[in-house]
Write a structure and sequence with these properties.
Length: 254
């Protein structure tokens, strides 16, 4: 086994935000990283920061079966077994109400946040089960629990992630494999820039005058879950910035 005593984490969406911060946090603590994302220049600069010995990179689209197959083949050819899969790649697109939302945006969110996550999990799980070790950390969202106007398909994808995480736990009982769903609230990353299709003013206005979570806050949660002793499974963590809370239920009057 080439892997020796170092733990290996595969992180999707490592070019930005939570994924990038998680790669840095884990690498700083001795983990080997496989950093995946579509924007290769971004993961190349991450690799430069972390060092080639600590970080492999791959241009990777979680919606492409061929990319997932190539990843599995590459891990196998290096005799690497995965200790931690962070299913982080994901996005929200749009904030329009359901009757006005762009169906292509809905499809992209479903393809990425649900289908991509499911396929990644299914691809890496058999080797984890065979190795009798592994941890899957999914990045869900508070939007999977609490509805809000314009959250429609995005929130529903994250509700899927929450239930899929719990059902994975049911299937994996007795295997020693752990599953965690981390459900953050408002956090400043490229998330809003992507949601508003590159409109920077709109994206900046979301974070203006408040103190949102940071990608590092989420990386700390991933790291903490991954570092619990093997007999401890953190099922879910829900975290919000202190500035974020709940609105009353709405009653519309004619
Ligand atoms: P960012 O936009 O900063 O990062 C998203 C990452 O996902 C990027 O690295 C992007 O890489 C990657 N990604 C998107 N689509 C694909 C794809 N098809 N294949 C591979 N990688 C992809 O946002 P965050 O860091 O905030 O988001 C990370 C996760 O956290 C998402 O799942 C998001 O839904 C969730 N989340 C975010 C919250 C927030 O407020 N920011 C709160 C709760 C959850 P690239 O474009 O290079 O492929
Ligand atoms: C994103 C968190 O609060 O913007 O998953 O919906 S929120």
């Amino acid at each position: 086994m080439t892997q020796s005593s170092r733990k290996l984490a595969v992180i999707t969406g490592a070019s930005s935000g939570f994924g990038r911060a998680t790669a840095i946090k884990l690498a700083q603590n001795g983990w080997q990283i496989v950093a995946l994302a579509r924007r290769v220049d971004r993961i190349e600069s991450l690799q430069k920061e972390l060092g080639e010995a600590n970080c492999q990179i791959k241009g990777f689209d979680v919606r492409q079966d061929a990319d997932i197959r190539a990843l599995v083949d590459s891990l196998k050819s290096q005799d690497l077994s995965v200790d931690l899969l962070v299913n982080n790649a994901g996005l929200a697109l749009g904030l329009d109400s359901a009757d006005k939302a762009d169906l292509n945006d809905w499809q992209t969110m479903i393809d990425t946040n649900i289908t991509g996550l499911v396929k990644m999990t299914r691809a890496l799980l058999p080797d984890m089960v065979a190795a009798k070790k592994g941890h899957i950390v999914n990045i869900g969202s508070i939007a999977g629990t609490y509805p809000y106007p314009g959250g429609n398909a995005y929130g529903a994808t994250k509700a899927f992630v929450a239930q899929f995480s719990l059902n994975l736990r049911a299937d994996l009982a007795g295997t020693g494999i752990r599953v965690t769903n981390i459900e953050p609230g408002l956090a400043e990353s490229e998330f809003s820039l992507v949601r508003f299709h590159g409109d920077k003013n709109k994206a900046d206005s979301i974070y203006a005058g408040v103190e949102p979570l940071t990608p590092t806050d989420i990386a700390e949660s991933v790291f903490w879950c991954a570092n619990q002793p093997a007999h401890v499974n953190i099922n879910r963590i829900e975290l919000m910035p202190t500035c974020q809370s709940f609105a009353p239920l709405t009653i519309s009057k004619e």
